[in-house]
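REQUEST ID: PR-0412
SUBMITTED BY: lab tech R.K.
PRIORITY: routine
TASK: structure prediction, single protein chain
INPUT:
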Amino acid sequence: MPIRVTFLPDGKSIEVRPGTTLLDASRRARVNIRTRCGGKAACLMCKVIASDGSGLAPMNINERLKLGGLQEQGYRLACQAKVTGDVTVTTPEDPLKAAIRKQLERQQEDL
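STATUS: complete
OUTPUT:
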């Protein structure tokens, strides 16, 4: 039975099989989640926020240790979090895009 994963703020959704990681689902949906380690939970760049994590499998020990308390704010590692039911996650803004957006906002304020 397919599971729907929705990525915010893009608003893109994709149906995947149970057990698919959020990182794999994001790649299939063409949502960019940054990672440097190739999904090995080493770089911690693939953090996402799952406001309602009920559609995700419980954290494994590796993910829990790597997040070091951020899970209390809804954070998960996309490379480790596996879907078990429909879920919506928020992907962080790319740092370069964030810097450009902030610069544009400052320019608008100056006008």
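NOTES: The chain has a mean pLDDT of 90.
REVIEWED BY: pending
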